[in-house]
Amino acid sequence: MPARRRWRWRGGSGRIGVLGLVIVAALGTGALVGLVRGASLFGVHFAAQCGTASMGTARSAPLYPTLGLASWPTFQGTAGHDLVVPGTTGQGSLAASWVFRPGAEMTMAPSVVGGTAFLSALNGCVYALDAASGRVLWTFHTDNELMSEPLVVGGRVFVGTGNKIILQTSKGILRGSGPNAIYALQQSSGRQIWAHATRGENMPTELYANGRIYAATGGGEVYALNASTGGTAWKTHIGSVVSMSSMVAWGQTAVVGGADPYAFYGIDLAGGKVAWTLPVGSAEGGLDDITPAIAGGVAFVQIPEGAYPNATVVEWAIDAQNGHNLWQTVLGTGSLLGPDNKEETGVATVVHGVVYVGSPALKGLWALNAQTGKPVWAAPTPLPAGIRAAPTVDGPTIFASGQGELYVINRQTGALLHAIRVGVPVSGTGTCTTPAPLVVGQTLYFAAGQDNTLVAEPLAEVLAGRVPATVG
Q1: 235 occurs within a structural domain
Q2: Tens digits of per-residue pLDDT, 378-387?
Q3: How far apart are CA 466 and CA 464, in angstroms?
Q4: Per the domain annotation, does 471 fall within a domain?
Q5: Which candidate among 63, 105, 128, 255 keeps its CA 20 to 30 Å from the CA of 111?
């Protein structure tokens, strides 16, 4: 077991009284089950309706039922994170244009499957939207905040709930107050199929494989649940608390990062055994928030090292099968303070042997050779704001989002083509992350800062540097 280091509690604030601490310390998983669909805890309240659509009631079918991926089994659809979905025959030229406001912040991009865009928001609501028109097909409300990206597999939608509040309990650090659960919903209607309570939040996006849903939690545990019934296949205590680091698999090994202590873990999906542990004693934060991008059996992660608040930002390549560190590339030195840093690390995208990654602390975008870690561009792309979300690579163009702006970048040279204001810059009390842009056919879907707005815009308009008048 790696040495335990102090975990800096920042960026995930919340107020809770002594009584709340006593209650949470006494709660076990069994007690939490009764809270999944019951009253709220610690003053966290959610409306019985999400926007204008009734919970779990289908409005209509999507216009183009084959638009998008056939399934969405992992964070951002694939292990490499590139959010580009080619248009299907007869629909590749579809250029949607609409705006949807869920009434709460969104931390993840929508998942587009079967012509439907599935979206989660901090108000605890899951939305199913017609990807072509933006019409609400159905909604479902949960009993806590939603920060996970909806998984869509086998006619079901899976999401996890929980919040950022950090508590000290008799069992150690617990992240996530109130009810925390993983839900399975019917894809066509939003009807709840099952809900499984967990100790600690489920803010990371879950993983689907082997007929199971895998989840890493704020209670320092990894769960494997039967996707059909919600029953527990196995549960493993890894020793680190997970915040927003989503499990990503390569073969039968899933990689995830945690804090207290800072380490990366390789989890055997079959039986739950910890296959390997990679302690990172030099880390100054972010391991519990960084979701690995995996390609060719290599996991790419970003680590801030040094003494808080200043940090040297380093990109690591890790063998997903054994946890060996293959290379490290120093991107630069910056500050972990300020509104750019809801989280300290940037999530990578891997396309054709190149790692594309930004940094909240350094305000730039890098292209690195996936085998060596050496820069591909002559220099990184300087940007007005930090980049937390994984960039999206579509042919000759890269799209990246940060601080209420959408960046359009030349893939070959790294030159910034457009910086488009699409919303209000994120404030110091904002959400944990900014959703990544998503390309489906000839449409770009992106969230507009803290304006609580999801936008679908024709690619041609974005490439020309234009956005709808209804945004901004």
Answers
A1: yes
A2: 999 999 888 8
A3: 6
A4: no
A5: 255
pLDDT digits (tens, 9 = 90+) for 102-115: 888 888 889 999 99
Total domains, the chain:
1
Cβ density class 146-155: b for 16+ within 10 Å, e for less = bbbbbbbbee
Q: Note whether residue 268 is domain-resident.
A: yes
Q: How far apart are CA 297 and CA 303, in angstroms?
A: 19
Q: Is 275 helix (H, G, I), strand (E, B) or coil?
A: strand
pTM: 0.87
Of 355, 308, 349, the C-alpha closest to 327 is: 355
Length of the chain: 472
Q: Which sign, positive or negative, has the C-alpha torsion 249, 254, 259, 262? A: negative
Distance, CA of 361 to CA of 434 (rounded, Å):
14
Query: 428-437: per-residue pLDDT in tens?
Result: 434 446 789 9
How many helices (H) and strands (E) the chain has is answered by 3, 35
Instruction: Name the residue among 221, 64, 201 with its Cα closest to residue 124.
Output: 201
Domain extent for 125: 18-463
Residue 61 lies in a domain: yes
Indicate which CATH number applies to the domain containing 361. 2.130.10.10
Q: Are 447 and 438 in contact, with CB atoms under 8 Å apart?
A: no
